[in-house]
Design a protein that fits this description.
Elements: E1 8-14, E2 18-25, E3 30-37, H1 46-62, E4 67-74, E5 78-79, E6 84-85, H2 99-106, E7 110-114, H3 115-126, E8 135-140, E9 144-150, E10 153-154, H4 187-191, H5 196-207, H6 218-226, H7 230-254, E11 258-262, H8 264-268, H9 270-280, E12 289-292, H10 299-309
Parallel strand pairs: 1-4, 4-7, 8-11, 11-12
Antiparallel strand pairs: 1-2, 2-3, 5-6, 8-9, 9-10
Length: about 325
């Protein structure tokens, strides 16, 4: 894509599976993008920050335009004072330092956000949330998370990790321990890409259902259901109930005008997931508009850039560390 705009930000999306780097214009257009599997072998989380620095340098060499700053959308939970994710359940490092290595390497402003917080800013700036004051974005991917704009402002919480909805309790029947190691019955344990296969095997055992393979991934389950496999279809109906409980909790907690859904599991299986949620959702409050994000997999990238254009976040946002 030709480089035509005058104002650009570098956007980084650090996920458990992939690292992506993009050059994003102020209008939210992605001029260039690169992706690599997230580094997971090395002495410490520094291997990830080194990977990101290398990718940004390559991007800047290929596209030598003026850049206003670097916006980073990262898996969580985040320690904003230290500048990176800590003890993320889906990555093998206790801490990954992001903001300081990037500032030292490039000498420009760096804004760090939880990936879902970045995504909801992207939705507000460039997507289905434009003109709305109360928005929730939910990702169903390797894990489950959310970003919330309430009253026009990003909801951060005490330390910037508000809206970790993947750890809402949505089940007490199967009572499976969460991948986070901190509790049981969490939404992420049942309906995320990482959690669903184990739940499928547990569900099949509990209900005396035979499944074709001892080990499956979420993609296999959805494909089997689309092919008419009875256990897969019954299981996804159970997952729909789980997802509907999670969404119902989100509505009760935040009362949004719109909920948009994204993440790899959702984007690959949107019709099934959306239909299941709408089938079983609680009607305690009037449901908002619920839809798949129009920004697709790039929502966190454009949101990270939007944070740079809007001045970013700083430690002053997080005065309460108790």
């Amino acid at each position: 894509m030709p480089i035509r705009d005058k104002d650009y930000a570098i956007a980084v999306d650090l996920g458990a599976t992939r690292v992506r780097v993009a050059l994003v214009s102020m209008s939210g257009k992605i001029a260039a993008k690169a992706a690599e599997p997230t580094a997971k072998r090395g002495r410490d989380g520094g291997v990830v920050s080194e990977q990101i620095i290398r990718m940004i340098r390559a991007m800047r060499v290929a596209h030598p335009v003026e850049v206003k700053g670097i916006g980073v959308a990262s898996i969580g939970p985040l320690d904003y004072r230290r500048g990176g994710p800590v003890r993320s359940p889906n990555i093998p490092f206790a801490f990954i330092s992001l903001t300081e290595p990037l500032r030292r390497a490039f000498g420009m402003p760096v804004s760090l956000l939880n990936d879902c917080n970045a995504a909801v800013l992207g939705e507000q700036a460039y997507g289905a949330g434009r003109g709305k004051q109360n928005i929730v974005y939910i990702t169903i991917s390797t894990g489950i998370g959310a970003g919330v704009v309430a009253g026009g402002a990003l909801l951060l919480g005490r330390g910037g990790n508000a809206a970790e909805v993947g750890h809402f309790i949505v089940d007490t029947a199967y009572n499976l321990p969460c991948l986070c190691g901190k509790g049981k019955g969490h939404w992420e344990r049942y309906a995320s890409g990482a959690g669903m296969p184990v739940f499928f095997r547990h569900w099949a055992h509990e209900h005396g259902r035979k499944i074709n393979r001892a080990s499956v991934c979420a993609k296999d389950i959805f494909e089997a259901a689309r092919a008419g496999d009875p256990p897969a279809r019954e299981f996804l109906d159970e997952v729909s109930k789980i997802n509907a409980r999670g969404i119902s909790n989100v509505i009760a907690a935040y009362d949004p005008q719109i909920i948009t859904l994204g993440g790899s599991v959702t984007l690959s299986n949107g019709k099934i997931i959306l239909a299941g949620i709408k089938k079983y959702i609680d009607r305690f409050l009037k449901p908002p508009v619920i839809m798949i994000t129009p920004l697709g997999e790039d929502i966190s990238l454009v949101g990270a850039a939007a944070a740079i254009y809007n001045g970013g976040l700083s430690k002053r946002h997080f005065n309460d560390t108790n």
